[in-house]
Design a protein that fits this description.
Layout: E1 14-18, H1 27-38, E2 45-49, E3 62-63, H2 68-76, H3 80-95, E4 101-104, H4 110-118, E5 123-126, H5 132-146, H6 156-168, E6 171-174, H7 177-185, E7 193-195, E8 219-223, H8 232-242, E9 247-251, H9 256-261, H10 263-266, E10 271-274, H11 281-286, E11 289-292, H12 301-308, E12 313-315, H13 317-320, E13 330-332, H14 338-350, H15 352-366, H16 371-386
Parallel strand pairs: 1-2, 1-4, 2-3, 4-5, 5-6, 6-7, 8-9, 8-11, 9-10, 11-12, 12-13
Helix pairs in contact: 1-16, 2-3, 4-6, 8-14, 12-15
Length: 389
Amino acid sequence: MPVSAPRRPAGRRSLRVAFPIYCSGSAIPACILAVCDRLQGAAFDVEYWAPAVEPAVQRPYHRVPLPRLATRLWYRLGLAETGLRDLLERRYLAAVRPGDIAYLWPALSLEFFERLAERGIPIVLERVNSHRRNSMRVLDEAYRRLGLPANHGITMRDADIESRKLALATRVFCPSPLVHRSLLEQGVPEHKLFHTSYAWESHDFHVHRTPRGAGHVPQFLFVANGTVRKGLAQLLDYWAAAGLRARLRIVGPIEPALRERCARELARPDVEHLPYRKRLDDLYGEADVFVLPSHEEGSPLVTYLALGAGLPCLVSPAGAGGVVEDRVHGLVRDPYDEVGWISALRELAGDAELRTRLGAAARAQAERYTWDQVGARRRAEFERLFAGG
């Protein structure tokens, strides 16, 4: 159904969420759904504005700009990316009322932010990753070290637009200390920043672990788009150098330039590459160690799933997402620390007791980061904002 601003009781205010990407129930849309679900029953109404919604995740609070059949036509004609975003922004602006709060996720236009600010609508901005200036610097270096042309798609104009959006925001949600620090470095005032996190759906992630026998070969699990940003090239180099009695399972697409550069490592008999799938429960259940050497992240959702699965995490500081502590829930190593990574791979592959101890601590840590827990903390912050805080 197309959106029409529903009637609301006198005095009721709305938190109007907007993200101009198809709501499929994965990645960012899954986070938005989890937050919106935990805001039901609050003293304010909640709406989630999206260009289209997968029927399986449809909620009563969804608002879309066009009927489903018309939306499909826009996608087929190649008009969806900007056309549906622009239409969504216009319909949103027509619906928003004084007293509402705009809760905005990435990819919305600067003009949209400016129009809301002109009308005095408070803006809460979800900053999924570090400031683009920081991201661009980190990724330029990552591509340079691999001898590849930078292909991260971030420009100085993007960074300047982001800074202008941040200046218009009343509050900025930061999902990790890395994001928080990057925004401070770019001049965002501390009083605007709200340190939060992402989480995992404990009721919808069911991992069954079978007992490991004496001859068990440990399995390391990498779940992500195989890109330079995610540190896959370094991981494969370190894996080849470590000489382990273990297996590495890579789940997700690999960008072509990286596939070519790492062809020999990907062809190793102890490396398996699988396509991404929606349900990851069985893959986490079969794994013994989760690994993510990212160069740049906000707070990766796959790391929360690893904690929930009770897996020790071998990660970079970015891959840790602010929720994995070194020698507590896993091992944290700089993605360029070749000696440190090779040593960590060997240590985790060869020490079942260490894996068990770190995995138990990871599972306990996961209980602090369920969406019920994190959603309650976010709900309290929204209630404070509606109260004028």
